[in-house]
């Protein structure tokens, strides 16, 4: 997602071993759930775990698309 200044990586369900909170919906991402890790290019300590659908909505919002 070069336009957004972030790196996005997929976490396969078999590698997802912890609970996370999605910043898009504030819902839980339980262990064993496919999701995305989004890391700002200039601030890697601010990585966040997102539901795939929530990240898709966020990218559309950030890029100004409906």
Model description:
There is one protein chain. By secondary structure, the chain is an alpha+beta fold. It has one domain. It has one helix spanning 52-62; strands at residues 6-11, 20-21, 28-29, 35-40, 48-50. The strands form two sheets. A three-stranded antiparallel beta sheet has the order 1-4-5. Strands 2-3 form a two-stranded antiparallel sheet. The longest helix has 11 residues, at 52-62. The model has no long low-confidence stretch (mean pLDDT 94).
Describe, in short, the structure shown.
The protein has 66 residues and is an alpha+beta fold.
Structural topology:
Blueprint: E1 6-11, E2 20-21, E3 28-29, E4 35-40, E5 48-50, H1 52-62
Antiparallel strand pairs: 1-4, 2-3, 4-5
Give descriptors for this structure:
66 residues; alpha+beta; three-stranded antiparallel beta sheet; two-stranded antiparallel sheet; 1 helix; 17% helix
Radius of gyration: 12 Å
- Main sheet record: 3 strands, antiparallel
Strand order of the largest sheet: 1-4-5
Strand segment count: 5
Helicity level: 10-25%
């Amino acid at each position: 997602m070069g336009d957004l200044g972030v790196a996005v990586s997929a976490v396969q369900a078999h590698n997802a071993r912890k609970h996370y909170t999605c910043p898009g919906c504030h819902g839980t991402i339980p262990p064993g759930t496919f999701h995305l890790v989004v890391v700002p290019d200039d601030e890697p300590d601010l990585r966040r775990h997102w539901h795939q659908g929530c990240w898709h909505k966020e990218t559309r919002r950030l890029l100004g698309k409906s």
